[in-house]
């Protein structure tokens, strides 16, 4: 699938598109990363501390599941405070799937901002995903990252997580008025958006892979109304993960419940639904060439 629409037309729901609501939440989550060190440093207000790898809200501590798992594997110890800190993100992923990636993650905010700016500059509504790889790379990225951490004896993703680096770089900028060299990784990941939509998120984010596994039996899924679907494949062209929602891939591990396909469908053939069990994916022999 090559043709994509970075800013698809949306069907209105309550006067707002899901994309607008989601980008609003992404913006708010990014602003929190900016305001937190400013309030800590200049206002001495410490009710909220840290960033999305380890975020403290009062007495509540939220810890990224991958960083927590990685740290315990490397140390070969089980830390109850870490397990408690991982609980809320794990429960969220088990119910809603990989929504942190699409609705909160600062990398998604930066990538969508770049995509929107690019579309505005070149005055085009459709671009090509220039490099499409196997989706299985996501699982290899998770396995490889954990194995490398065990071999080196150090939690690699704790130090080099692109989402975590955004928060860390912002904190350094406030406290030391400088940036660290690791920030280059963030720039590289965001610039990959010009090559393929959500390239890093699709293929190489181990945190996304772990959240996808936790959300394998999620309750919130993108469901299809078969009698409304015309087979236009507009949802497939719009999906930032390169999926086929019209063929049931909104229920797959790779879907991150961003709602872009729902907004795009002019026939309202797709919708979010809450269910207690997931039926198997509908088998199909349709060719991906239908998306082009």
Please count the beta strands (DSSP E, at least 2 residues each): 7
What's the gyration radius in Å? Answer: 19 Å
Give the assembly state of these chains. single chain
Percent strand: 5-15%
Main β-sheet, spatial strand arrangement? 2-3-4
Topology order in helix (H) and strand (E) letters: EHEEEHHHHEHHHHHHEHHE
- Distance from N terminus to C terminus (CA atoms, Å) equals 6 Å
In helices, the fraction of residues equals 40-55%
User: The biggest beta sheet, please?
Assistant: 3 strands, antiparallel
What number is the mean pLDDT?
88
Count of spatially separate domains: 2
Which of globular, elongated, flat, extended, rod-shaped describes the shape?
A: globular
Counting helices, strands and paired strands, the structural category is mainly alpha
What's the total helix number?
Answer: 13
Which runs of at least 5 residues are low in confidence (pLDDT < 50)? 1-15, 281-292
Quickly describe the structure.
It contains 13 helices and seven strands. With 292 residues, the chain is mainly α. The strands form three sheets. The chain has a three-stranded antiparallel sheet. The chain has a two-stranded antiparallel ribbon with strand order 1-5. Strands 6-7 form a two-stranded antiparallel ribbon.
Task: Describe the 3D structure.
There is one protein chain. The protein is mainly alpha-helical and 292 residues long. It folds into 2 domains: 11-214, no CATH class; 217-279, Alpha-Beta Plaits. Helices cover 49% and strands 9% of the residues. The chain has 13 helices and 7 strands. It has helices spanning 18-42, 65-75, 80-96, 99-103, 106-122, 137-152, 156-160, 162-176, 183-191, 199-203, 206-214, 234-238, 260-264, and strands spanning 3-4, 48-51, 54-57, 60-63, 127-128, 220-224, 270-274. The chain has a 3-stranded antiparallel β-sheet with strand order 2-3-4. A hairpin with a 2-residue loop joins strand 2 (48-51) and strand 3. Helix 1 (18-42) runs parallel beside helix 8, helix 5 (106-122) crosses helix 9 (183-191) and helix 6 packs across helix 11. The longest helix is centred in the first third of the chain and has 25 residues, at 18-42. It is globular.
